[in-house]
């Protein structure tokens, strides 16, 4: 049977009003480099941070042992921390990573440390979602304590400190934002994060069967139970972004050689004009420009030609002009009709107003 072990995820960490200290620690530990880092190197780099490194390493980040060396893995949480300044998006994504409670393995770790916060995972999955309907105003330290202490899977001697600390973490981590029915950035990043920690790149195939397999893995991961209020918009976005995840090769999206292999497999007839530079690129599917996120720039050819996504400057991620995009697409469609000899009866401005319901 599953066991829930207590864990010190706030001791001497001094979170403050948000999770900015975690954002800073990730950037220092990875030295702003988009590559896996040895766990020992990460600890060495954050030694002067004046906060215990184990909180980040053992509760939020993902660990792997390869060739006898422990690594901290570059995944979606790290990518977002390195790519963007701290903000609400990062806090909600980091909180998802905590609730997801899958941090991998490292030498000397106990078996239960692979999933160190199952009490948090189940509190959200079994109570906040189904019982509270994501009304986070009903969360309290007393309610958390009652939930945890009455579950036979919890093996700790006391629950009060864990409960007060978890209640505080949910406030500073902005769990209240999980009520939104929109597929916001943090939610799309959480989808990628869940897959990053559930699927290996060599397990990802190509085509519709691969998409279906990834959706199955996503559901089995528990993403839906802790990812906030469900909606039709989220269900649709999940399909498109899961497909994008598979097209880009999962964690392979951070490795140029792996991305090139995917390009040769999925779009062999296309020869890119020039190799993409590093950094990030904004993406959205034409069916819903409001569901936007960023991916590594090296994946932009795959995103556009193999997954059908639109590309834009990631610096405009939060203030992308949707109306301008719709108008430009409408004008392009009208030009195409004109080239075919079809004369439109209305202008692009009139058509844009109609689509907006004016």
Structural description of this entry:
The chain has 358 residues and is mainly α. Helices cover 47% and strands 6% of the residues. The chain is built from 16 helices and 6 strands. It has helices at 20-30, 39-45, 53-59, 76-83, 88-100, 118-128, 141-149, 160-172, 185-196, 208-221, 223-226, 232-247, 256-266, 300-305, 322-339, 348-355, and strands spanning 37-38, 63-66, 69-72, 280-284, 292-296, 310-312. Helix 9 packs across helix 12 (232-247). The protein is globular. The model has no long low-confidence stretch (mean pLDDT 90).
Instruction: Please compute the radius of gyration using only Cα atoms.
Output: 22 Å
Q: Can you count the helices? A: 16
For the record, the count of structural domains works out to 3
> What is the CA-CA span between the terminal residues?
58 Å
Share of helix, binned: 40-55%
Widest β-sheet, arrangement of strands: 1-3-2
Report the major sheet.
Answer: 3 strands, antiparallel
Percent range for β-strand residues: 5-15%
| Structural class by secondary-structure content | mainly alpha
Q: Tally the beta strands.
A: 6
| Mean pLDDT figure | 90
Instruction: Give, in order, the helices and strands.
Output: HEHHEEHHHHHHHHHHEEHEHH
Give start-end ranges of low-pLDDT stretches: none
List keywords for this structure.
three-stranded antiparallel beta sheet; 47% helix; 6% strand; mainly alpha; single chain; 3 domains; globular; 358 residues; 16 helices
Task: Give a short overview.
The chain is mostly helical and 358 residues long. The protein has helices at 20-30, 39-45, 53-59, 76-83, 88-100, 118-128, 141-149, 160-172, 185-196, 208-221, 223-226, 232-247, 256-266, 300-305, 322-339, 348-355; strands at residues 37-38, 63-66, 69-72, 280-284, 292-296, 310-312.
